[in-house]
Amino acid sequence: MPTTKKPTKKKSVALKRGAPKNRVIASGAKVYGGMKGRVVKLTARRPHRSFRLTRRRDYKRSLKLPGYWSFTISTLKLLLTNWRLFGGLVLVYVVVSIVIGGFGAQDTYSNLASSLKQSGGDLFKGNFGTVSQATLLLITSVTTGLTPNVTQAQSVLGGLAVFFGWLSTVWLLRNTLAGHKPRLRDGLYNSGSPVLATVIVGFIIMLQLLPSAIGLIIYTAAQNSGLLESGVSAMLVWMSVILFSLLSLYWLSSSLIALVIVTLPGMYPLQAIRAAGDMVIGRRLRVLYRLLWMALVVAVTWLIIMIPIILFDDWIKKLVSAINWLPIVPFTIIAMGALTLVYVSSYIYLLYRRIVDDDASPA
Hints:
The chain is an all-alpha fold. Helix content is 77%, strand content 0%.
């Protein structure tokens, strides 16, 4: 029988010495191949190239949507048709918000109102003085909050309550549009499984808002230093603010859709971000216009509802001082926050469904 020669001792030592180097080269080639494959897939999915003019035929995609008012009314009609279900969700969210953070101190609201009246000066003179004062009071109450000394635990629980409100709304809508008759209890218990993935997507959205925050810092610094008084400096400041804000809006137009995609079973956060980017490519402006319209409707609704309530609260408490303790405005702000959360979640989910249906329809 033929005999095989065994490798000598020197060759085996040389092979052992070269093995780690070969493994490093192989692993580096594997990493490079994976990165190159991802880049190739990305360029195949998205026709846009940086600093290059893309042909319209390469990026044009259909997106058949109802008109702005029609889509808004259809969202409200769906919620009102199932008013017991979503009204119960609003009530649960209000109760949870009160348990976590309280009503918001009425004393804080009263002190804020009196401070604005005393320091307003010439700001509130004119026919619309009381309306301007109520608007400023509303904006200050919503942005700064009325609950003093909020602990870190309350902040975390409040954020989780927002995420669970979003998840419950999406879960109930998905099952309602599928022809089922879900119960609120099922939505509250079964919708929380993707909460961690949703929180991660929410964290990514916060990072995407950083350019807007930088733009706000630039504007505030320029205003304090007097740069806005000069024509050239003011133009540069406003251009910087607009560019930073547009960058955040560009990212948000897909990341808000990713908040819906991440609720699908087995979906990972970064996978949802990629899928949302692929969905809005070629139609990003149309999606962004819808989201801006949603924000405008929400802002106008808050002004229409809250300003008369603030004016009524000020008037009735001047007549009957015994009810000064009653937190009418803080409670209304909590209720409006719950309604806004359900409406915004429903609007974005239905917009996502329209995009999916448009992709599924034959060209």
